[in-house]
Amino acid sequence: MIRLTETIHVDRPLASVFDYTSDFSHIQEWDPGVVSSTKIQSGKTGVGSEYELTLKFGFFRPKMKYRIIEYEPFSTVVLKGEGDAFSAMDTIFFRKTATGTQIDYQVDIRFSGFGRSLEGFLSPLMKRIGRKAMLGLKQTLGETKAFTAPKGWFKSGSNLADYLADHTILPGMLMFSQFGCELSKRFWTEPKDTLYGKKVVLTGGTSGIGKAAAFQLAERKAFLTIIARNREKAEQVQQEIIQKTGNPHVDFLIADLSLMTDIRSVAKKLKATQKSIHILINNAGALFNERKQTSEGLEQTFATDFLGVFYLTMLLKDALAESSGSRIINVSSGGMYTQKIDVDDLQNEQGPYNGAKAYARAKRGVVILTQIWAEQFKKGGIAVNSMHPGWVDTPGIETSLPKFHQLVNRILRTPEQGADTIVWLAVSREAGQRTGLFWLDRRPHETMVLPKTGESIHERQALWKKLNGLISKKLW
């Protein structure tokens, strides 16, 4: 159980403060974690009054119902709340003071199932959010006019760490973790379609999320080609997939996707052997903690995670257009939420190099490309989507971000959980009818949560021009 306790004082008469606070149809006006609240039945507020809330749980919008179980006018109100994977008990005491009213607020939160293992880890973050809510109540009740909602939380002088905790860390801990995946599963309907006869090209399919996706795609009877860098690993994975799934239609091609010459070569082989490609999955990627250049003179993060995705997709777009209902699936990362694309520094030359920042910028770029391609390829019938696999326990994470891995390894997703949305985007009919979206756990999500991380139309145009310029120069 997580217990939150806060006390505030407001310069308002006891009766008006009690009437306002005890009626939870007002809660969205002062609690930033609540999107909306509706009183289910009409009549006076009292024991039995019920409210339906929509919560802001990261990028997810779960429902919750509250019911008043104790109601003592001008003294005490107790509400019991029930959600899909958690419950809450809100106990509120009111006391008249010489200058106004004191409110003592206590909330007991209990998670069920897997969520119970997160309670100790999440307690400090939940308490911070509780303080935000009480600050909102104090601010609202302190208005000299009628009660109105507090204005935006993120403004000049506010605490960036608090904002990130509310908007990035908590959603990451919950919705990017195993807990988020398990919670989302409650709303899934498993597609019955197979991929038999569909030519699927998957980059980076020999380890981590890519390997898990390769197995799941083969189980769906895809005609699968894996693009890998290491021949020995590719041969081993190919045999494992064929033996375990019984699908003989699995092959591989060798290419280093940080090298444009390799990308051009592998694209030529694919087009020579395949009349059409039904699904392209751009999964390969890496986070490098040191800035290095490839043999072609390109910064390796930019080359591997961004320019390579652009080049391979552009080379294969005609083969994709040959098939009906073809799809492109780009694997991004939640890290992209923290960064804005820097069109003037695509190769991370300015200032000290930061591997996580460079990786996040590249993944932001992939999401931008997804939206551009969605518009460009719409007439050709190609659906283009990007996705976030959540926080997944892979060898790459453990090697590149050891401190992060040590901190959250207990709640990281399995590679199979991380690969689920990739496969769903490849299989489901619904996904084939949507384009230009960013998905997590089979649901479309926002692409921007922090101010000023979005790009202008001018920046998109400049980015497109620079990427095409690099490719057209053919420096490799």
Helix and strand topology:
Elements: E1 2-10, H1 14-22, E2 34-39, E3 50-55, E4 63-72, E5 76-83, E6 86-96, E7 101-111, H2 119-141, H3 160-175, H4 178-185, E8 199-203, H5 208-219, E9 223-228, H6 231-245, E10 250-254, H7 260-273, E11 279-282, H8 300-321, E12 327-331, H9 355-376, E13 383-387, H10 395-400, H11 402-408, H12 415-427, H13 429-432, E14 438-440, E15 443-445, H14 457-473
Helix pairs in contact: 2-3, 5-6, 5-12, 7-8, 8-9
Summarize the structure in words.
The longest helix is centred in the first third of the chain and has 23 residues, at 119-141. The protein is an alpha/beta fold and 476 residues long. Mean pLDDT is 87; it is low at 144-172. A hairpin with a 2-residue loop joins strand 5 and strand 6. The chain has an eight-stranded mixed beta sheet with strand order 10-9-8-11-12-13-14-15, with helices on both faces. Strands 1-7-6-5-4-3-2 form a seven-stranded antiparallel beta sheet, with helices on one face. It folds into two domains: 2-174, START domain (Alpha-D-Glucose-1,6-Bisphosphate, Chain A, domain 4, 2-Layer Sandwich), CATH 3.30.530.20; 195-473, NAD(P)-binding Rossmann-like Domain (Rossmann fold), CATH 3.40.50.720. The radius of gyration is 26 Å and the shape is elongated. The protein has helices at residues 14-22, 119-141, 160-175, 178-185, 208-219, 231-245, 260-273, 300-321, 355-376, 395-400, 402-408, 415-427, 429-432, 457-473, and strands spanning 2-10, 34-39, 50-55, 63-72, 76-83, 86-96, 101-111, 199-203, 223-228, 250-254, 279-282, 327-331, 383-387, 438-440, 443-445.
